[in-house]
Design goal:
Elements (H helix, E strand, L loop, with lengths): L5 E4 L4 E7 L6 H10 L7 E4 L10 H14 L3 E3 L3 H11 L6 H9 L4 H9 L8 H19 L5 E4 L2 E4 L14 H6 L3 H4 L6 E4 L17 E3 L4 E3 L12 E9 L2 E9 L4 E4 L12 E2 L5 E6 L4 E6 L5 E5 L3 E4 L2 E4 L3 E2 L10 E8 L2 E6 L2 E6 L3 E3 L2
Parallel strand pairs: 1-5, 2-3, 3-4, 6-7, 7-9
Antiparallel strand pairs: 2-10, 5-6, 8-9, 10-11, 12-20, 12-23, 13-19, 14-15, 14-18, 15-16, 17-18, 20-21, 21-22
C-alpha cells in the first residue's frame, strides 16, 4: 500500500512553474502540451497525479516522467488515486478476482492491459491469482517508482495535491483518501491563505449549463482546478497552469491542447435565443418521454428538466435510460467563414466547439479546413 508523503520547497527569486494534471496515459497529448508551453529544464514542472490509466500509453508515460525527473530536479510528480488504486489492486491478493472485471470495464487502456500484452496472457484461460502474481512481477519497477511520489507539495504560495485537502487548520493531517480521491473539495473549500491547486475531477463538472474544460481559477475560494477531462470525457483537453513568479509575487496564465479537426462554416447559421440544458456526471439518468427520429424528448431524473437529447447519446441499462456522456442541447449560431472544432458527426448533425461553446449544427453547413 502506498503511503502519504509531504514535500515543502521555497523558491527565492524568479521562476516559472508549469502544472499539468490527469494525463491519463495520453503521452502524445502531454508532449504536445510541453512543446506548446515551451517547457525547459530550468522550469519547475509539477504533475498532479493520475498520469496512468484511461489511455493506451500508460507504461510509456511513466517512463517519460522518469526521464524528465532524471534530467531535472525541478520536476515533481504527485500521487493520484489511479496510481494508488492500481497498485493496491495488483498487490493485494484479495483483489485478484477483480482484475478481469476491471479490465472489462476500462476497455483497451491501462497498465494491466499493457502488462498482459507484454506477457502474452489470455485472461480467459489464466487463473486470476496466478495472473495477478505475474502482473505484479512485471509492474514491480513501476510500483517502486509510485512509492517515491509525494501526495502533497507545498510551493511558495501554493499547495499542490491531486484531489484536495480537508477544511481544517491542521490540513496536513488530511486522510490519504481525501488527498487523492475527495469529490467535494470545490464545494467544501479550505481555510488557508494559499492557493490549493487540484486535478482529479474535470472542471466541466462545475458548470451547470455548459461543457467547459478550461482551468478554473477561483480567487475567492483560493482554489485552482485544472483537470480538462482527458481520457475521461469525449470532449476534453489537457490543461497547463503556468505560474510566473518572483518570490511570493506571481502571475497566472493557462494553455491547453485539444487535438480536434477544424471545420469552417459555409453559410450563416442563425438560431433563436435558447435556454441551454446540460447532462453531466453524476446525473446521467433520464426518462424518454417521446422518441424522435434524430432527437428524443427526455426528462432528466435528478433535475426534472425536459429537453431533447440526440438519440446516439441515449442507452438502455437495466430498463433505465442514461445519457452516454456530457451533453448540451445548445444549437450553435455561426457566421460564414467562422472556424470551429469538430467533436463528432451524428447523422445530419455535427457536435462542435466554437470559442469554447459546445453545441449542435447541421453538418452540411460545414467544410473541412485543409
Amino acid at each position: 500500500m502506498l503511503e502519504a508523503q509531504h514535500i515543502k520547497i521555497k523558491v527565492v527569486g524568479e521562476y516559472r512553474c508549469i502544472v499539468i494534471s490527469d494525463i491519463h496515459s495520453h503521452l502524445d497529448r502531454f508532449k504536445a502540451l510541453l512543446k506548446k508551453v515551451d517547457y525547459r529544464y530550468d522550469d519547475y514542472l509539477i504533475i498532479l497525479g493520475d498520469f496512468i490509466e484511461k489511455g493506451t500509453q500508460a507504461l510509456e508515460t511513466v517512463r517519460f516522467l522518469q526521464e524528465l525527473q532524471a534530467k531535472s530536479e525541478r520536476v515533481y510528480v504527485i500521487l493520484g488515486n489511479c496510481e494508488y488504486a492500481l497498485e493496491e489492486m495488483v498487490d493485494n491478493l484479495k483483489y485478484a478476482n477483480q482484475i478481469v472485471h476491471y479490465l472489462n470495464r476500462i476497455g483497451k487502456g491501462g497498465m494491466i492491459r499493457q502488462a498482459l500484452e507484454k506477457l502474452n496472457i489470455d485472461i480467459k484461460k489464466e487463473n486470476p491469482e496466478v495472473m495477478q502474481v505475474k502482473i505484479k512481477q512485471f509492474l514491480r519497477p513501476y510500483f517502486q517508482y509510485f512509492k517515491t511520489l509525494p501526495t502533497i507539495l507545498e510551493f511558495n504560495n501554493f499547495i499542490f495535491v491531486h484531489a484536495g485537502i480537508e477544511n481544517r487548520k491542521d490540513w496536513q493531517n488530511s486522510s490519504t483518501s481525501s488527498l487523492i480521491e475527495m469529490r467535494t473539495f470545490y464545494q467544501t473549500g479550505h481555510c488557508l491563505d494559499k492557493y490549493v491547486v487540484v486535478g482529479h475531477l474535470p472542471t466541466s463538472n462545475q458548470y451547470a449549463n455548459a461543457i467547459n474544460n478550461d482551468i478554473i481559477i477561483d480567487k475567492q475560494k483560493r482554489i485552482i482546478s485544472i483537470d480538462g477531462g482527458t481520457g475521461v470525457k469525449s470532449i476534453s483537453q489537457l490543461n497547463a497552469l503556468i505560474i510566473t513568479g518572483d518570490g511570493d509575487r506571481f502571475k497566472l496564465s493557462k494553455e491547453y491542447i485539444q487535438p480536434l479537426p477544424l471545420y469552417q462554416a459555409v453559410v450563416d447559421v442563425n438560431v433563436e435565443k435558447q435556454v441551454v440544458n446540460k447532462v453531466a456526471w453524476p446525473n446521467f439518468e433520464v426518462e424518454v418521454l417521446k422518441q424522435g427520429k434524430l432527437f428524443s424528448t427526455c426528462k432528466q431524473i435528478k433535475t426534472g428538466k425536459i429537453f431533447k437529447i440526440k438519440n446516439e447519446f441515449l442507452y438502455l441499462n437495466n430498463q433505465k435510460y442514461y445519457c452516454l456522456d456530457d451533453y448540451v442541447d445548445y444549437l450553435i449560431p455561426l457566421e460564414k467563414g467562422e472556424v470551429i472544432k469538430l467533436v463528432g458527426i451524428y447523422g445530419p448533425y455535427a457536435y462542435v466547439i466554437k470559442d469554447n461553446e459546445i453545441g449542435w449544427v447541421k453538418y452540411r453547413y460545414l467544410k473541412k479546413v485543409n
